Amino acid sequence: MRTLTVSLLGAAAVAASLLVLLQQREDPTRLVPRVVPPGETLPSEISLDRLRERGF
Q1: Which residues, 6 or more positions from 34, have their beta carbon under 8 angstroms from its beta carbon?
Q2: DSSP states of 1-56
Q3: How does pLDDT run across 16-45, given as a tens digit for each residue?
Q4: Exposure pattern of 7-45 as b/e (b: 16+ CB <10 Å)?
Q5: Does residue 8 have a pLDDT over 80?
Q6: Hey, which of 24, 39, 43, 56 would disulfide with 51, CB 3.0 to 4.6 Å?
Q7: Per-residue pLDDT, 34
């Protein structure tokens, strides 16, 4: 029983370390904040100018 417990703890430690490494290697462009165009308060997928063109 002790061997199983130690093995499971070891596997959990390896999995946790891999997750930490993967998070550190994330795409650095995701960490750069998006530029907010003038007249807008939050970055969005559609710009304010595009909404105005569509009549909203």
Answers
A1: 43
A2: -HHHHHHHHHHHHHHHHHHHHHHHTS-GGGTSPPPPPTT-SS--SS-HHHHHHTT-
A3: 998 888 877 766 555 566 677 676 666 667
A4: eeeeeeeeeeeeeeeeeeeeeeeeeeeeeeeeeeeeeee
A5: yes
A6: 56
A7: 66
Whether the Cβ atoms of residue 45 and residue 52 lie closer than 8 Å to each other: no
Q: Whole-angstrom Cα distance, residue 20 to residue 30?
A: 17
| Cα distance between residue 47 and residue 40, in whole Å | 8
